[in-house]
Write a structure and sequence with these properties.
The chain has a single domain (1-58), classed as Rubrerythrin, domain 2 (Single Sheet), CATH 2.20.28.160. 0% of the residues lie in helices and 26% in strands. The protein has strands at residues 30-32, 39-45, 48-52. The chain binds zinc ion. The site of zinc ion has 8 residues, from loops.
């Protein structure tokens, strides 16, 4: 069991599915949606906020 699991996993802005964010994830980290596999960038940790990660835009 992972005691560091966050109580409220954020949802995917794309499909609304649950996204698993590592407990030690930091702002700027890119995680992948479990449902649609969309890359999502972590922009805040309190609360956990994810935005679609666009590789083509800089
Ligand atoms: Zn998704």
């Amino acid at each position: 069991m992972d005691e560091a699991v966050r109580s409220a996993d954020p949802s995917c802005p794309d499909c609304g599915g649950r996204v698993q964010v590592p407990a030690d994830a930091e702002v700027g980290e890119v995680v992948e949606c479990l449902q649609c596999a969309a890359p999502l960038e972590l922009v805040a940790t309190r609360p956990l906020t994810l935005v679609p990660f666009d590789e083509e835009e800089k």
